[in-house]
Design brief:
single chain; mainly alpha
């Protein structure tokens, strides 16, 4: 039996120093399913293939081609072969996946007197707009008010 599919997975497992149990934990695909792929060469369902591709950090399309789910010609199809809805769904899925792995960094710090939404991106966490900080830094000494001094009586 030609088991190109499992060889494709096995090479990637060896490169990571993983065993099938590691892939099962990382992907959420049952070890019994992985064993079925290895022993019988049965192709994966799309959700399982996607989970394995994500766990191994490899593209889904070549994985599906190795599994025999897609032909080599189908794997090489241009984006024009897909409907807009199919492309949007794939993009949406990829953004959800990336967002799940992205650190929680604050980028936008809302302030009450923001003149527009774009200003919010450049504001600091203390709520002072960047333009105010810059204006303060651009004031020369000659533009500053005189420091308080002794009364002259004049």
């Amino acid at each position: 039996m030609d088991n190109t599919w499992w060889r494709y997975i096995d090479v990637r497992l060896m490169a990571r120093g993983w065993k099938p149990a590691d892939l099962s934990r990382a992907s959420g695909v049952a070890e019994s399913r992985l064993s079925d792929w290895r022993k019988r060469g049965s192709p994966p369902a799309i959700p399982n293939a996607r989970a394995v591709a994500n766990a191994l950090d490899i593209p889904l399309v070549p994985l599906l081609a190795a599994a025999g789910v897609l032909t080599a010609d189908e794997a090489r199809q241009s984006l024009a072969a897909y409907t807009v809805d199919e492309l949007l769904e794939e993009i949406s899925l990829r953004f959800r996946t990336e967002r799940a792995h992205a650190p929680e960094w604050d980028v936008i710090h809302p302030i009450s007197e923001a003149a527009n939404r774009f200003q919010l991106v450049a504001d600091n966490p203390d709520g002072e707009p960047l333009r105010i900080q810059q204006e303060r830094a651009w004031v020369s000494d000659s533009e500053l008010p005189d420091p308080p001094g002794p009364e002259t009586g004049a």
